[in-house]
Amino acid sequence: MKEVAFMNSSPVYFEFSQTSLKALKENDGLELPLERGTNGRLTAGCKEQLIAALQKFLGRKGWQPRARAFCAIGANGVSLRRLTLPASAKEEFQRLLVLQIENEFPLSPEELAWGWHRLGSNGATTKQEVLVAAVKKEVVEDYANVLLGCGMNPVF
Question: Which of 29, 34, 53, 54 is nearest to 44 (CA)?
Answer without folding.
Answer: 34
